[in-house]
Amino acid sequence: MPTGSNLKIRNSVYYVRLKVPVELRHLMSTSELSRSLNTKDRRTANVRKLSVLSEWHTKFDDLRRRRDMSEADFANATWEHYATELRADELERTIPELNNATRLLGHREHHLKALREHLGRGETVLIEWAAEAFIERHQLSVQSNTAQYRELCFRLMRAQIEVLLRAGERDLGNYAGVPADPIVTRPAATAEVAKPGERLMDLFERYAKENPKRVKEAALMQARRDIGTFIELVGADFPVTKLDKKAAREWKALLMEYPVKAAETGVFKGMGIKEIVAANGRFESPKPVITAKTVNRYIAAFSAFCNWLVAHDYLPANPFVDMYLSVDKTKTNVRPFTDDERKVLFASPFFTGCKSEVKWHLPGNHKIRDHRYWLPHVMMYSGARPGEIAQLLVDDVRQMHGVWVMHFTDEGDEEKSLKTKGSFRVVPVHSKLVGMGFIEHVERQRNAGERRVFPEAERNERGHIAAKFEKKFGTYLTKLGLKEGRGLTLYSFRHGFSDAMRAAGFMDEEFGFLMGHSKFSMTARYGAMPQGTLQKRVELIEAVSYP
């Protein structure tokens, strides 16, 4: 039973829970943390949860400071283990009570044989202690079930074998031995590294805390993930002073070959951006890569951060200036429904009666009449975005000069947000929606004490409301045989609204403001307007019709 405020009840006992940030889930192997508070009293639970939440957030911060393992780390780990263990052998020989040659010889021979057998079988248990110590010491984000972890263990085992061989030579008085294994070599001089507190992600967290442009938390999370792909490429210790056009150019080139949803694809787990691109190129059927528009989103997030770096004198200039890809803004992957497709959709079980809450595609007597039912209809007759509709408060739907209107604004709730300042607007409720019972639905929510028109509409991990329904709606269209690949989505209703307006004889500039394509005004923010202006909007909205 959910209770809000990070608490839930299970068998009358309170539990605290917390969503794991998307960018950390592959490190924690879960999407949500949960722990019993061992109490049935809500007040006690609210007190106890604070220390648990603090512990979890500290863990998140620790994981964010970690970095992926680089080739230099592998070389350093191998040599560091070899040199440290050989030094320990040398010190051991200076302590008489520990220097029992016969006992040590037997132990080394047994250990050497076991290491070689395990290495041959691909087992790592004998050296995992050293791998985990190195990972923790260097704050690396390497998980035990990844290829990187196994490679580290294999290298350390080979280093340990060389240590045992040197120790055997020393038993015979030979201290001149050197490693025969080519991977056990002293690394070249290390490159310049960032000073403490001046790693890129350290600086990004300061930028996010200041948030000079008041960017939404979901956008900051997205930017953190996007910039993380660059850090995967150059390493966490990359100095901010080295962030130049060359580094930006090389990252952009990889982004242009980066597969769609790579972070969510199991086959790429544990890989950095360079390895992902290389692996995808080896597939017989490579996965499709992200669009130029998405590449530009990555660049825009990094560029905004670089503007802050320039303002704080970390960089002389923003390296991402003039780095954007050309995008044809007239093209879109989304198209409106045809008349026949719309008829098939609205005659389907989801709208007429389905089997259950989850089996939308099967006919039955169950009626869905929550946000999932209303979003397509309201989009058809208002042109609004699904997130704008899903976050409406009951007070946002009201009468003005005798006309029912929807006021799209970010006022009244801290979780509300709009895409642009021009998205603040007042849109009359179409008579079709009134006739379908939309106003009655709003009043039912008001009478039930709900603040929202659609209280059941959930936000996803990135904070986008109704995004889960958008995804499921696309799956439903596929099951109906209407959708194959890209084309039809929930946003098709918004595109259909534009076409209906054009079919009614209006130019884009005449109705664009109803869809949130206009300049910001305080009138739009607070939703006050003269009766004449409102009546013109009513005439526009009522012109929308579908065969």
CATH class type of the largest domain: Mainly Alpha
User: How many distinct folded domains?
Assistant: 4
Structure class:
alpha+beta
Total helix count? Answer: 22
- The CATH topology of the largest domain comes to hpI Integrase, Chain A
Task: Please state how the strands of the largest beta sheet are arranged side by side.
Answer: 1-2-3-4
Q: Care to count the β-strands?
A: 7
* Main sheet record: 4 strands, antiparallel
Return Rg in Å: 30 Å
What's the CATH architecture name of the largest domain? Answer: Orthogonal Bundle
**Separation of termini?**
45 Å
Portion of residues in helices? 40-55%
Instruction: Report the sheet-strand fraction.
Output: 5-15%
Model description:
The chain has helices spanning 25-28, 42-65, 71-93, 101-121, 128-137, 147-171, 200-210, 217-234, 245-255, 273-282, 292-311, 339-346, 349-352, 371-382, 386-390, 431-436, 438-447, 467-479, 492-503, 508-511, 522-526, 531-542, and strands at 2-4, 7-10, 13-19, 32-36, 397-400, 403-408, 425-428. The chain is an alpha+beta fold and 547 residues long. The chain has 4 domains: 2-65, no CATH class; 71-171, no CATH class; 200-311, no CATH class; 339-542, Orthogonal Bundle (hpI Integrase, Chain A), CATH 1.10.443. Strands 1-2-3-4 form a 4-stranded antiparallel sheet, with helices on one face. Strands 5-6-7 form a 3-stranded antiparallel sheet. Strand 2 and strand 3 (13-19) form a beta hairpin.
Question: Which descriptors apply to this entry?
Answer:
alpha+beta
